[in-house]
């Protein structure tokens, strides 16, 4: 019998976005699921360099990172796709010309500009420094090369100009007011799952995904069994197979029990 393969988002799904703690009930549920022979994967918009130690300590079987631009199984890299230096520099020039804040995310480095307008970007940078994710690379790095990016606009941003320039290169995922996640076309949390199904010979009916945000839509629509956290963006509720409880109300455990994973 083929194992089930279960994909978990991080922020708002496994990790409380205020405390940055994984609930104990979730840790226990994940352990029991693996003991029952199921494969567990992180499927996140974060690149691999930005995975918290508390997530790594949960011993997932593998990772889909950067919305499908990086895939790892049993500590072995299976796939990685970068934008390349030329395109990376073009994006930097346009971001600056259009007055748009951004975090540029790669496998080995995260890049910040020296001039940051957004308080949210400053907050995230401080956390990245604290967690050791940020090594000091800036937009001026001569070898800048990343996988994807997130952007924040303000009243002085020329978003339409930026969007027109890159609308055929990236999917612009709207995450909030003035907040977008940009993923290269052809890549998504769903494309990563499809890749692993083929590589590991997993039947589609054995696929599960749990998420909470609009950047989880691709994987939630793709898998056979889709689960939204109770604290999810309300848009997800009518699009999934099952809505579990909030993250702090043992939502992960509740979902896995519902599907008899353990």
Automatic annotation (TrEMBL):
Keyword Hydrolase: yes
One protein family per Pfam: Hydrolase_3
InterPro entries to which the protein is assigned, alphabetical: Cof, HAD-like_sf, HAD-SF_hydro_IIB, HAD_sf
Gene3D superfamilies: 3.30.1240.10, HAD superfamily/HAD-like
Gene Ontology MF terms in the entry: magnesium ion binding; phosphatase activity
Gene Ontology CC terms: cytosol
Annotated SUPFAM superfamilies: HAD-like
Protein name: HAD family hydrolase
Native organism: Clostridium chromiireducens
